[in-house]
Sequence to fold (137 residues):
Amino acid sequence: MLNRVVLVGRLTKNVDLRYTPNGVAVANFTLAVNRPFKQDGEQKADFINVQVWRKPAENVANYLKKGSLCGVDGRIQTRNYEGQDGKRVYVTEVVADSVQFLEPKRDGQAQSNYQASNQDDPFQGDAVDINSDDLPF
Fold:
C-alpha cells in the first residue's frame, strides 16, 4: 500500500499552533494549490488542510504566514469525531512529514520587491582552476 502526497502551494491564512495536554505542538493550516489547467480562462485552486506535529509545527508557525509559498510532503489521513450537534463529522487532511519553506524570510518587504542575492549561494563566485594532475582518478 502507498499513501504519499507532495504539494506546493500558498497558505490561505496564518498558521494555527496549539499544544496537546501532553505539551506536543500541532499546527494546522490550509494550502491553496493551483490545478494544472485553466477552466474558462481562469486558474482554479484546491484548498487542502494540512497538519504538522512537534518541532516542525513550531517552525511552520514561526516562519510561515498567509501567502507564504511552501512544499508539503506527507500522507492523507481521514478522521472523524462527534460534532456539537451530535452528528458524526469526517475530516480528510494531509499529515505532513516535512514542510519546505520555498521563499526566503522577507522581514517586512513586499513579496514583489524581494530580490535574492547571490551572497548566500555557495556555488557563486570565481571559477576554480583544477589541473588534471590534482584529480585522484
